[in-house]
Design a protein that fits this description.
Length: 558
């Protein structure tokens, strides 16, 4: 970091104002970045709410276009924020908000998951939670209004997504589901809640359950009959989503062919390592051998959480001495078992003041009670250090150079997830995956990510299947993933449903890794003998989250 803060510029002021606007219009996003002044409200998912967000984006874009950069930091901010605003406007104009139903990242999940990040230490914290809980019925009403407009205009989600979300809601609203247990278990760090507050929490949680059940009824009786039988969104909308998740424009057809080649390479690499683990074994036989090795198995979520934390702490300590400059504030990373059972592993960044640290979350599906360390070691590096935590927390820390938007909100899935996959390979190169079993686990994840490039583009663009037996569809996608992923069928089914409902997101991991590696190699070629990999990594991470086209531009300009 620089020794003294950079003098803010007019472009910084525009970016800072945009963060304030985002926090005001999206209280859930504000909570995510640690702006707790809006914690008593929820996002407005009504038609008016969507219109307010796009109007604000247009006004900010106009101001940004009229401003002149005064230094290289401004050049990056203007390019990246302009691109982000332009894309949000394009998605609005395409009606993306009118069909926003999927199994992982739509309002149905966001209204629930925001409570995972709220402070719970004091009675005052729980009073704010009660206020936000009381806002759920209105927020769901606005969401239903928007989806009804989608029905009226013929802009609807796939029926598969609607059906899956109905099932999720049933789990949220059951007697042992999130809202019932969240209210029943409410307690500050010390003492207990006043009876009046406990009663209010219970009442608002009950109203939230009723509202969610009303949403499920709407989805079942109105949206599902009108929803599309087709899972793919088509080339035009897919291109927008792909650009959104990558922060880069790519050739979708070339990327599909590259995905097929990358998948074949991953398979060959796995086959070679399987032979190291068990001479003459196939990949499947090597996996079966490892799955029967009790020394590589964890039993129960407590054991999983403790192993995650110990593994993460060791990586932070060792890498902070050798390969990265890791500030003290970043060295704290909490490994958590998520309060849901939806599947998936994810990271949430620290608050701006680091009072809430970065967290790695594991949402363990119901019925899953054993975990293979050889399979999951690389996941800890992916989500923690040198993966997401180092990347995202470093940007939060770099306030001397970066405005709040650059530190807290900018970026893309391709930048973040691409770096995390890049980090997995880096840990292999640094000797942290010398055990062939751990490398096989890393390659299992890399193979899955390569398969997702092919599947995602294949389904959403309606491309011919690799076997020549017709066009990609959901049934073939599930079969394809089962052939390429050695994980529980519950996980695979959730993952495929996620890809079908979240176009462009799944490929951003492997495509992002590809672009990160391209940028590194371009930088090495440009700098020749002066190239230093540690300096390259820290230069790139100090930029904060940016789109991958912006990353390439920024590193090329020196």
């Amino acid at each position: 970091m620089t020794d003294s803060p950079r003098t803010p510029t007019p472009i910084d002021a525009i970016a800072e104002a945009w963060v304030d606007t985002c926090a005001e219009l999206s209280p859930g996003l504000a909570t995510y970045i640690g702006r707790f002044e809006h914690n008593g409200r929820l996002d407005d998912y009504s038609l008016a709410g969507a219109a307010a967000r796009v109007d604000a984006a247009r006004a900010t874009l106009a101001a940004l276009q009229a401003a002149e950069p005064v230094d290289d930091v401004d050049v990056v901010t203007k390019a990246d924020l302009s691109g982000d605003l332009e894309l949000s406007i394009a998605l609005y104009e395409a009606g993306a908000h009118l069909r926003d139903v999927n199994v992982i990242a739509s309002p149905a999940q966001e209204l629930r998951s925001v409570f995972d990040l709220m402070p719970t230490d004091t009675i005052e914290d729980w009073a704010v939670i009660a206020t936000r809980l009381s806002a759920i019925p209105e927020a769901i009403g606005g969401y239903i209004e928007t989806l009804r407009e989608g029905i009226a205009t013929g802009i609807v989600p796939a029926r598969r997504q609607v059906t899956e979300v109905i099932g999720q809601i049933a789990r949220y609203t059951s007697d042992n589901g999130f809202f019932a247990t969240f209210a029943a278990d409410a307690a500050p760090a010390e003492g207990q809640l006043p009876a009046s507050l406990a009663k209010a929490l219970s009442g608002h949680a009950g109203a939230a359950r009723v509202a969610y059940d009303e949403l499920a009824n709407f989805l079942r009786t109105e949206l599902a009959p009108a929803a599309s039988e087709v899972d793919g969104v088509g080339r035009e909308l897919y291109a927008l989503h792909s650009r959104s998740f990558l922060g880069a424009v790519i050739d979708l057809d070339e990327t599909y062919e590259w995905g097929l080649e990358e998948l074949a390479r991953m398979v060959a690499e796995q086959e070679a390592i399987a032979n190291e683990i068990l001479p003459g074994a196939t990949v499947e036989e090597a996996v079966a051998f490892l799955e029967n090795d009790e020394a590589r198995k964890l039993r129960g979520t407590q054991a999983l959480q403790e192993w995650m934390q110990a593994t993460s702490d060791r990586a932070v300590d060792e890498l902070g001495k050798t390969h990265f400059d890791i500030p003290e504030q970043i060295r704290r990373l909490e490994c958590m078992i998520a309060p849901t059972n939806e599947g998936g592993i994810y990271y949430t960044g620290p608050t701006d003041d680091f009072s809430r640290p970065g967290r790695m979350w594991w949402s363990v599906p119901e019925g899953v009670d054993s975990f293979d360390t050889w399979r999951e070691l690389t996941t800890v590096y992916h989500e923690g250090v040198p993966g997401h935590h180092l990347q995202i927390a470093q940007a939060v820390y770099n306030r001397a150079e970066l405005n709040s938007w650059r530190r807290l909100l900018a970026g893309s899935s391709g930048h973040a997830e691409g770096w995390a996959l890049y980090a997995e390979r880096l840990m292999e190169q640094l000797g942290y995956l010398d055990d062939p079993a751990d490398r096989l686990g890393m390659l299992d994840g890399q193979r899955m990510r390569a398969a997702r490039v092919v599947l995602d583009i294949g389904v959403h663009l309606g491309k011919p299947r690799p076997d020549g037996e017709g066009i990609w569809d959901a049934d073939f996608a599930l079969e394809f993933m089962r052939r390429n992923v050695n994980m529980s069928d519950e996980f695979i089914q959730f993952e495929v449903n996620r890809y079908l409902g979240w176009p462009g997101q799944a490929p951003s991991y492997k495509v992002g890794q590809r672009i990160w590696e391209q940028i590194r190699d371009e930088t090495a070629e440009r700098e020749g003998a002066d190239f230093d990999i540690k300096r390259f990594h820290m230069r790139a991470l100090r930029l904060g989250g940016v789109g991958l086209d912006t990353l390439r531009m920024a590193l090329a300009q020196g």
